Amino acid sequence: MKEGIIMETVLQTNIAGMEPSRGKVRDIYDLGDKLLIVATDRISAFDVIMANGIPCKGIILTQISRFWFDFLSGEVEHHLISDDIKSFPEPFCNHAEQLAGRSMLVKKGEVLPIECVVRGYLAGSGWAEYKDSGTVCGQKLPAGLTQCQKLPELIFTPATKAERGEHDENISFERSVQIIGQESATYVRDESIEIFKKASAYAESKGIILSDTKFEWGVVEGKIILVDEVLTPDSSRFWPADKYEAGRDQESFDKQFVRNYLESINFDKSGPGVELPDDIRQKTSAKYIEAYEQLTGRKFQKDAN
User: Fold this and answer.
1) Residue 179 sits in which domain range?
2) Contacts (Cβ under 8 Å, ≥6 apart) of 191
3) Beta strands in the chain (DSSP E)
4) Residue of 277, 235, 240, 206 lying closest to 51 (CA atoms)
5) Element (H, E) at 113
6) What is the pLDDT along the chain (305 residues), one digit of tens a residue?
7) SS3 label, residue 181
8) How far apart are CA 231 and CA 197, in angstroms?
9) Are 210 and 254 in contact (CB under 8 A)?
10) Nearest to 230, CA basis, from 191, 258, 267, 260
11) 259 vs 25, 39, 45, 159, 281, CA distance in Å?
């Protein structure tokens, strides 16, 4: 699969008589008490959706999320009901050509209006802030840390959710309390950290470092449960452990090829997305597939349902 990846993509789904809401990556169909979430092959970088997509990306993201939901079963309640198209209600069960491998029937709830970010390493925007002020999202860290260094302890850095085309805004834990309440904020902080610890230990056993990730939580029948995608290359920084070295940027299993390309053409990080070259799309797809196979120990099958 590393050579000659099929370049066809699903940029959006079209189910006759059904109108989804479309996010950066997902098409979401409201079925009343449930949702059907479809991960397309759209890709966003710097919060801008590109003009073309990444082959197989939606299938890979969905299957990685499915793996983690199974892994975390018994630890935390989540929203997944089924990813078997035959169990979907009509007309969706009749559209395998669009939905196979990339869709999940889930519980519908009220999504909490904060993103729960857990950081284990000093990378990305956290590193940029630390260089300027010695803090990450306002939290003071010890002096003398280097780029991508493992943090002395995990830190929780919540963020508000941006409207489409805008950027998320980091907030303090105290601000998250003001938004969702003390009990809910404490719960999602503590659960996010515990999930990160368990997932990080597992990933390390597979030769992968989990640098940071973001979780989303929702309220279903009065209970806070884990929703959206979980621990995918779109919501996390995964690094190959055998190539890790503090003090520099790391190789990663995510859309870094896309970001690097956009930086090389001086993309202004706003407005309409650009057409990505086929080699960037293929390299990015291969990285997503590599992450799936290394994490799960399974061979990626494009047509597996």
Assistant:
1) 111-243
2) 76, 217, 226
3) 21-22, 26-30, 34-39, 44-45, 48-49, 80-82, 103-107, 110-111, 114-121, 135-136, 139-140, 150-156, 159-160, 169-170, 208-220, 223-227, 236-240
4) 277
5) none
6) 444 455 689 999 999 999 999 999 999 999 999 999 999 999 999 889 999 999 999 999 999 999 999 999 989 999 999 999 999 999 999 999 999 999 999 999 999 999 999 999 999 889 999 999 999 999 999 999 999 999 999 999 999 976 654 567 889 999 999 999 999 999 999 999 999 999 999 999 999 999 999 999 999 999 999 999 999 999 999 999 999 999 999 998 888 889 889 999 999 988 899 999 999 999 999 999 999 999 999 999 876 54
7) coil
8) 12
9) no
10) 191
11) 16, 20, 6, 21, 12
If one counts every other C-beta atom within 10 angstroms of the C-beta of residue 108, the result is 17
What is the C-alpha radius of gyration for the chain, rounded to an integer number of angstroms? 19
19 in a domain, yes or no? no
Output the domain CATH number for residue 151.
Answer: 3.30.470.20
- Closest residue by Cα to residue 164 from 11, 276, 271, 251: 271
Considering the domain boundaries, does residue 204 fall inside one? yes
Query: CA 76 to CA 94: how far, in whole Å?
Result: 32
Whole-number pLDDT of residue 100:
94
> According to the model, what pLDDT value does residue 1 have?
40
Neighbours of 98 (CB within 10 A): 17
DSSP labels, 64-85: HHHHHHHHHTTTS-B-EEE--G
Is there a domain that residue 182 lies in?
yes
pLDDT at residue 4 in the model:
47
91 upstream amide cis, omega within 30 of 0: yes
Q: How many separate domains does the chain show?
A: 1
Number of Cβ within a 10 Å radius of residue 296: 17
Compute CA distances 286 → 5, 38, 172, 180, 203, whole Å: 8, 21, 36, 39, 19
Amino acid at 104: M
